[in-house]
Design goal:
Blueprint: E1 3-21, E2 24-38, E3 43-48, H1 59-74, H2 82-89, H3 96-114, H4 118-122, E4 128-136, H5 140-154, E5 158-162, H6 168-182, E6 187-191, H7 198-207, E7 216-217, H8 225-234, E8 239-241, H9 248-257, E9 262-265, H10 267-285, E10 288-291, H11 298-308, H12 312-315, E11 319-320, E12 342-344, H13 357-363
Parallel strand pairs: 4-5, 4-11, 5-6, 6-7, 7-8, 8-9, 9-10
Antiparallel strand pairs: 1-2, 2-3, 4-12
Helix pairs in contact: 1-3, 3-10, 5-6, 7-8, 10-11
Length: about 375
C-alpha cells in the first residue's frame, strides 16, 4: 500500500457564537480538511485547525506547506512507514497542526487497513471520555446561567473558565459566582492563555483560595522564566503548559526548567505519534495531563477522543471536547452526541470521521 495523493481542502464554517480568549478571537472555523489517499483505495481523514495568533499558522500557509513541502516528499511511501514520514516532516520546523493532521490521517488509514478503531490500536483503555465545557468573558451571572444550562442538557460537570483579558476583579468574581452557584461537586479550572503576568496569576490564586479550583492553565508567557518558576513553586494547584509545549521537546524543557507541572495534550498539533511521546514523558515523570482543545471541529474532537480514551492517564480528567457546540454546522456525516457528560469512541475502523460530501461542498473555499 502506497500514499498516492494528499488533498488539502480549505473550508469555513461560522460559529453560532464567536469565541474569545486572551490570545485571540474567532468568528469562523477556517480550517483545512486533509484527505490522504492510497493506491489500494483506502483514505485517511483529519482536520487541520490553524491558529495564527498562537502558532503562526494560517489556512493559506498550512495548505502551502502540505501541498508544496510535505506531500511531494511522502508520496509513494507506505502509511506504515511512520518513522520515515516523521523524519521527513521534522526537517521543517514549526507547522505543528499541519504535521499533526498528516499523522492522524496516517493512523486513520492504518486503522481502516487493519479493520480496527484507532483507539484500540493506541491502547483501548476505555470506550468513552468525560467532557469539560469552556466558559468565558461574560458577566459572572451569565457564565453561571450557561454552566447550569450545559449541565442540565448534556450532563457535563467540569468547566474550564477562560480568563486573562479583562480586569482581574471580574475573573475573580466569576470564580466565586460559579463555585457558589454550581456547588462543590463541580470541577472548575482556569485558562489565561498567557493573558496575565506571573504576579497577577499569584494574586488571582490568593483571592480564589478555598474555592477548590483544580488547574491553572498557561497563566503567563513562558518567557517569564523566573517569575513563572516562582508561580509554579507557590501554586497549590498544578500549572498547566499549553501553548508553550506544542512538541515533546518543549514539554521536556518546561517540565525540567520548572515552567509548569502539568501538560495539555492536543492531538491537533501533535497528531497521535508525538502525543504518545508527550504522554510517555509525563507518565514517566508523574505529571498530570489533560486532553486539550484547539477549538476543534467534530472531526478533530473525534481524534482527541480516540487518543484520550486509549490511555489511562489521558482519561482520568474530563477532556475539552465541547467546543464544536459553538459551530453552526460541521462536516461529519454522523454528528457527535454528548450523553451523560461523555462522548463514546466510535467502534468503526479508523478514527470514525466520515465526511458528508454535501456539507463539504457547501463550506469549501477552493471552488
Amino acid at each position: 500500500m502506497k500514499i498516492d495523493r494528499i488533498e488539502a481542502i480549505p473550508y469555513s464554517i461560522p460559529y453560532s457564537r464567536p469565541l474569545a480568549f486572551a490570545s485571540g478571537y474567532v468568528s469562523d472555523a477556517e480550517h483545512v480538511l486533509i484527505r490522504m489517499h492510497t493506491d489500494e483505495g483506502i483514505s485517511g481523514v483529519a482536520d487541520l485547525p490553524p491558529r495564527p495568533y498562537t502558532y503562526g499558522e494560517t489556512q493559506q500557509s498550512a495548505m502551502a506547506v502540505v501541498e508544496t513541502i510535505f506531500a511531494p516528499a511522502i508520496l509513494g511511501l507506505d502509511p506504515l512507514e511512520r518513522g520515515k514520514i516523521h523524519a521527513i516532516l521534522n526537517r521543517t520546523v514549526h507547522n505543528q497542526t499541519a504535521k499533526g493532521a498528516i499523522d492522524i490521517a496516517l493512523w486513520d488509514i492504518i486503522g481502516k487497513s487493519c479493520d480496527k478503531p484507532v483507539s484500540s490500536l493506541l491502547g483501548a483503555y476505555t470506550d468513552r471520555m468525560s467532557v469539560s465545557h469552556m466558559l468565558g468573558f461574560k458577566p459572572a451571572s451569565e457564565l453561571l446561567d450557561e454552566a447550569v444550562s450545559i449541565r442540565a442538557e448534556y450532563g457535563i460537570n467540569t468547566f474550564k473558565l477562560k480568563v486573562g483579558r479583562r480586569p482581574l476583579a471580574l475573573d475573580i468574581e466569576a470564580c466565586h459566582v460559579l463555585r457558589d452557584g454550581l456547588g462543590s461537586d463541580v470541577d472548575i479550572y482556569l485558562d489565561a492563555n498567557r493573558g496575565w503576568t506571573a504576579n497577577e496569576a499569584l494574586e488571582v490564586l490568593r483571592r480564589t483560595e478555598g474555592l477548590g479550583l483544580s488547574l491553572l492553565e498557561e497563566p503567563c508567557d513562558a518567557k517569564e522564566t523566573m517569575s513563572r518558576r516562582r508561580l509554579v513553586t507557590k501554586s497549590a494547584i498544578p500549572v498547566v503548559g499549553d501553548e508553550s509545549v506544542p512538541t515533546a521537546g518543549d514539554v521536556s524543557r518546561e517540565l525540567l526548567s520548572g515552567g509548569c507541572n502539568a501538560i495539555s495534550i492536543k492531538t491537533a498539533r501533535s497528531g497521535f505519534t508525538e502525543a504518545q511521546q508527550i504522554l510517555g514523558l509525563c507518565t514517566g515523570l508523574g505529571i498530570d495531563v489533560v486532553m486539550g482543545n484547539q477549538i476543534d471541529s467534530q472531526i478533530g474532537t473525534l481524534a482527541t477522543i480516540a487518543f484520550g480514551a486509549a490511555h489511562e492517564a489521558t482519561s482520568r480528567r474530563a477532556g475539552e471536547l465541547s467546543n464544536f457546540l459553538d459551530m453552526s454546522d460541521d462536516l461529519l456525516a454522523e454528528p457527535l452526541t454528548i450523553i451523560n457528560g461523555t462522548i463514546k469512541v466510535r467502534d468503526v475502523p479508523g478514527v470514525g470521521a466520515d465526511i458528508d460530501p454535501e456539507r463539504l461542498e457547501r463550506y469549501r473555499q477552493d471552488r
